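Section handout 9: paired folding examples.
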Amino acid sequence: MYYKGWYHLFYQYNPKGAVWGNIVWAHSVSRDLINWVALKPAIEPSIRADKYGCWSGSATMMADGTPVIMYTGVNRPDVNYQVQNVALPRNGSDPLLREWVKPGHNPVIVPEGGINATQFRDPTTAWRGADGHWRLLVGSLAGQSRGVAYVYRSRDFRRWTRAAQPLHSAPTGMWECPDFYPVTADGRREGVDTSSAVVDAAAAARVKYVLKNSLDLRRYDYYTVGTYDRKAERYVPDDPAGDEHHLRYDYGNFYASKTFYDPAKRRRILWGWANESDTAADDVAKGWAGIQAIPRKVWLDPSGKQLLQWPIEEVERLRGKWPVILKDRVVKPGEHVEVTGLQTAQADVEVSFEVGSLEAAERLDPAMAYDAQRLCSARGADARGGVGPFGLWVLASAGLEEKTAVFFRVFRPAARGGGAGKPVVLMCTDPTKSSRNPNMYQPTFAGFVDTDITNGKISLRSLIDRSVVESFGAGGKACILSRVYPSLAIGKNARLYVFNNGKAEIKVSQLTAWEMKKPVMMNGA
């Protein structure tokens, strides 16, 4: 959240080690979302309602500008019995909000009426309706497999009443970390405050809503875009199959995400967590585990069908003074070109590709028309194709023993009723050769990019940060974060290449690459 000139990030943290357990709410603050100061934890187990765990939750800005936190507590030693608690700042005049208090009336929401008490967590940011009531969601599981977002109402954040029907549900398994927020539907990139779109009828007519859930079983986040009926307190996805064919913020290692509205720049910002892909022993040795992705600005695509995401503009302050630029470079089939003149272990790379002809594109197998992951795994970066794979090898060693591939591959659409259809674009990250270290988890990640490539043009941006590769395809229509742990391509030994393993030649219209500086990280303030 943003409060009195400071951004506040609260996150699940184990102060006793680089393994899961002893979870508290750590607290860091920043002026610019890039350089952070770590404060002491904001919320720790201290009352009966959270004695055995302070789990996830959300912050809400009240009408008078005072923040309030709702979070999940575990209150029994023998079972993860989950209740919802409230915390308030001890001193609202402190812009750093260094102390939080828990009122004696906690817990304020308990699992009644047949709710599964071990699957009942992660309250959302609340929104205020025209009737003066605040509403929030709590994620849950109904029966064996139905994910549910329950609606609770309150005037005072103390007495909460559950609505007769959930906001929405679907047979996807448990819904963790739900998020529900408005987005402008008129093509603008401005964010919308969670409450304003509900109170202001004129604003309500110009917005769509996003419902995002984290799937406990599949360990990824998916979302739908739809309509919020404020009277019925129900949400309806625009795509009836949206809960089946999942749109995802990120097709890689990205989970338990959360957005907030930034009033300072009138934008909505997305945070996401990426866990480690090395071993627990490695985590203990390095003393930390888990990262937050670079914050992303999110807004609705003009088509209204999906969100667009882009790294916040502040990350560009970490760019070195002079970029390396490659222009109008043709990359022939089977060729790779090294990008030299900068260190690329920490870099920001933007590239625009042009494909001369799509005639060599292979026909998409109908069996894989909805399974980008399977398609990428079956035909990775080294498998010769028609149009692609083409893209970047990042964190590559001099002899290419190690490399992480971020690439596109273009297919003719699967034959359906004789129609031509537009080409299908697959975006992949393939880290299967990213490290020579043993015992690494190196899954390929992939998603289809809803873009028209009939003109042969597509763009890619990759943020490279030693063990993290975050990539944004076609202006943020598809995003993939991957964790990699090279043993050779480290520091000055990391290299960057453009490659083309397709039959059609491609052209790099322009590639611009910057070395990235480290942000300032200060602890114990």
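Moving on to protein 2 of 2.
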Amino acid sequence: MEFDLIIATLLGIFLFHGFCSSEKAPNYSFMRQATTAPEISHYDYIIIGGGTAGCPLAATLSQNYQVLLLERGGSPYGNPNITYLSAFGSALSDLSPKSPSQRFISEDGVINARARVLGGGSCLNAGFYSRAGTKYVSSVGWDGQLVNESYVWVENKVAFQPPVRQWQSAVRDGLVESGVVPYNGFTYDHVNGTKIGGTIFDAAGRRHTAADLLEYANPSGITLLLHATVHKIIFQTRGLSRPKAHGVIFRDALGKKHTAYIRRGEMNEVIVSSGALGSPQMLMLSGVGPSEHLKAHNITVVLDQPNVGQNMMDNPMNAIFVPSPLPVEVSLIQVVGITRFGTYIEAASGENFSGYRSSRSDYGMFSPKIGQLSTVPPKQRTPEALEKAINSMNALDAAAFRGGFILEKIMGPISTGHLELRTRNPNDNPSVTFNYFKEPEDLQRCVNGLKIIENIIESKSFSQFRYDSISLPALLNLTASAPVNLLPKHDNISVSLEQFCKDTVMTIWHYHGGCQVGNVVDQDYKVIGVDNLRVIDGSTFNYSPGTNPQATVMMLGRELYVEGSSNSSVCFDGHVSSAFKLPSTPWSNSKVIYRSSVRAKVT
């Protein structure tokens, strides 16, 4: 028996090294411009959106099938505004047509952004990496063991332990001093108390995005097209009891039309992974959505599905800027306080975070272009006004930008809104309303979070990083004076934390919903009422997972299409992945379990 096990293990390793191959980012031979694509092509799986979910999906499916991954943006590689921690905010302030970030403003008046780049939001965000809680995993019906294995699969490529220095340490200790306990040290796990979370920035300050997960892909099983904008999903309806996804129509950067079909096969699929704005928008553009709304835009109704675009949610963020008498390190989100009343406390610091760099060409979250804490109201941001504001900021001493933000984000949220089409152009932003703080419980959570932030600022642990001469009300009024959104302002806002929450609400880019499980897709993420079509991304969430959803979105792109027991092994990179154990039984007895009808194998 032992001899058989040794032989089986050696055979497995031999097979892995002999038949698995991979490529290192950014040198993907399978990545090319959509202009090189044939007019007509056929694949087993077509994935719309090469973002935080689409990349791990494509990498997993490519092991055994021919996969087409369509990304409307370009490559993140070689763009310093994406790559370097010190440039955080620069991509968000780039408003050019080729920017990796596409700005939109919700009907609530909050400035926001959606990704337009391979790797999706993981190319733009503050990099915090933290898993969903065990209760969340259980509540949505995922397999706990497989979820953990899939998280590790992601973490082996993109997650790191951040270097925690003076300012972040002061916030950490201030959280504990304020009663956000216990202190759990460094962990990816979502647990109550104060912790150091992971980051997708490595020790050199270089960002690792979901695009790096394509290193797991089988190069011969994947075609990745950049600047490929999908205009609609094609359905077969004639002679069928229900619509069946058949392929997609997309256009390249020159506007040339291409059609890609899924090959014949009961289980071949089109998978929409275009994000919380893009996925419901794509379904509507393809004729799946509220019939009256589709007819108003002269879109042929394939399926009347009134829930598409409903229950849009965005976790509201409110922050307090704390000027520091001492220099502070450049840091994004590292420390988090996970409270027991539904609020997460986080922080970011440094002259580079606020945008003060030697070039003084931009100002991060203070940038007149970004709008999070800008001095120029959004409706007044003409090129002339922006130039004037930047020149005025250049004249300020560096100390004016020294300090950091302590912010709170509420869990959930409970308040919901909706999304509608503005035009039939997939490049145009849809109209979206989030209804921030519509539900009183959301507002109370914000108030409770702000009270914790006030306790941190006044704590002994944080004392060296605040001016004694600036009172808490002054800090609140200072932050509130910045035109962070299009909402009307109120005077002396510090007297009401409820009003501060409403007047200074911002986004932390964790919006979700629009194609939720149970309403638009079933438990296997199949679009209800349609065959051969799934949605897999944050648009399916009924609740934002953990403190930051990106870890779970990347995990989801892996977990849904491969289920393996502890007796399974996975080969990528020409070796046995540490995410899975070597077989404890002879090779021929190892087994693979599949979710529902999904059939991707572990090879």
